[in-house]
Design goal:
mainly beta; 5-stranded mixed sheet; 39 strands
Length: 697
Amino acid sequence: MSKTHPSLSAIKYALLVVPVLDYATTTAGWAATLCPDQPVSGQTASCRKKAEEIVVRSRNASFVVSSSLSRLSGAVLKERHLDTLGDVAERLPNVSFTSTTQANPVIMMRGLGGPEEETSSLYVPFMLDGIPMMSMALGQIFDLDHMDVTQGPELTKGPNVFGGMVSATSRDPGNRFGGSLDFEYGTGNRRRAVMSNDIPLGPNTALRVTVGGEVADGYVSNRFLDRKDTAGWHSWFGRLKLLHKDSAGGEWRVSLHHVLNHGGNDYFASPTLALRHESVNTERGMNDNDYWAGSAQYHRAFSRKMIVDVALGGNATQWKSEIPESVFSARTGFTMPTRQAGGTITVSGSSGTLDWRGGIFGQEMMRSTPYLFDMSPYYLSNTTAVLNNANVAGFAELAWRFSPSWRLVPSFRVEHNQWSMSQWSGLQTASVPEDYTILQTLPKQTASRTVPLPGLKLEYHPQTDSGLMQFGWISYTRAYMPPGFSPHAVMAATAQTPFDASYGNNLEIGYRLHDRKDKWSAEVIGYSNLISNLQVVTTNANGESVVATAAKAHTRGMELNATFKPIRSLTLSGFLGLTYAAYDRFLFAGQNFSGQQLNGTPKSSFGFSGTWTPGDGWSVNVNVVRRGRTNLYPSSTLVNDPYVLVDAQIEKKWRWWNIAIYGRNLADARYLTRGLASGEAVAANPRLLGLRVGVTY
């Protein structure tokens, strides 16, 4: 078998080169014979042999994916201390995040994202072992095999994807008894321990058990309370994963996940105090997250013409938030339970010059969205609502390889959404300076939409045996975000008015080059997305938090990625991300936002890294990322100036042991992750230093 080579797309992670596993299957369209049948059997055999060589070399999972894909291995997530989705996002090109606390990030890609806590519509869905999750309740990232970050809309990956998708896959159990134990200690009095064990239950069955915990004081110094732990947390997390391979060639995976996090909520302060990680709040507040998730997956290749993949499951999450009363001079908070269940069934295969992929996706979600704002006796607002979404979609993709180097891939998706908002009530009351009470209720409100979503890709992948691998594509995708309701509106007239569905027309062109000797690689991707009725979280003239729609908006930009290995022990890599995302026509509450940059979106980001492995178990890594000026989400009145993140690690491994000294944000860049129109802000973590010690057995 010919030698395989790592993919360029995996390099998009700024910290280091992340090799992607090769899938040397013959089920993709590029796997057919390169030359026509010939009458001489020896010539035919020779032709097939050459074709198989080239196919195996080029069948890298990411290299021939016609979209912007970054794969981060579980080892990278662990070793680079990327503990939340926010840590991951700010180290990738054209990816950002907004967060009210350390454990509740919302991912944004190419300018799109943000309203997840106001509604249950997702610009960027998060998948864990094939099932949808509420990413804000995810908390800790632990014991993953890999995480895929895909930018741009997708029609055939299960859930509806408007701006991009994050998909995490937990680590499979091994077939021998063994495991690992890791301890960490870092600034902020952060202590973390994780233990994983593989337990064989039979020749074809194994169980992996992972448990862990983390305690930290956080990174806020409260002057009023004279405490340094008001933004701290303690969490417990665990996972059971069973893998069974049956005699028919099927693979069964059953997973159970649980994370429980209790923490303070002393994050909001004036921008000046927030940037110094200081607070004068009179209470600690509360930020508690709890989720259970279960999934069952099945994979079987019946033949080249029939491969079946099934993922079914659900989750129950609860986010309880109480902001310190001194932030708004009011008691403010909510308890937001969410229940989701659903899954995807996919069938794929190939025959001759054709290959296909088709399936169905279904999901039902229910979320309770109460919200209290109590500054009695002057004013009290208490809203309640239950949101429900039933979503069913069918999708198909048929690819035609009309020449050895060219492939045409039309795709189609039919999406049906049934939204409802029930049990809505809005209470407003006060006794000073006037005594009044307004209580409004609504019957069940519904909205539904069925939409066709077409897509078309043209791919170029020359099948040559030269020293250079090439892959290019140009694609069009119709994107869609369903309509819905604003549950936190305090007036019935506002709450019962649904906001419009969003539509996007996304064009993308990309080209990858990779040296077969693994010396260098390069990638360039350009995109343009024209959007109508873009859903935006904002505040209306009555002070209600609502989802409005910008009539016209657009995002466009590019991503450049490259890697170079001058010697075997040294890898250099870098990226550049450029995004211009703006409202073209958006009039709301008497203001004209047309021409304004979308919130939470840096126009530029670039980074470079070097990884040196001199031998004898040593490795050294240095990484630098610069992110451009940003209007904070959801307020546009607060701005992040450009900032630079510097990370580094030195690690030594022995046969059983490893020890590492690491630092994140070594330059101690001060920047904000959230900004409100009222002036309060949330700051990102300061400089972090730590020590990790691990043993493998």
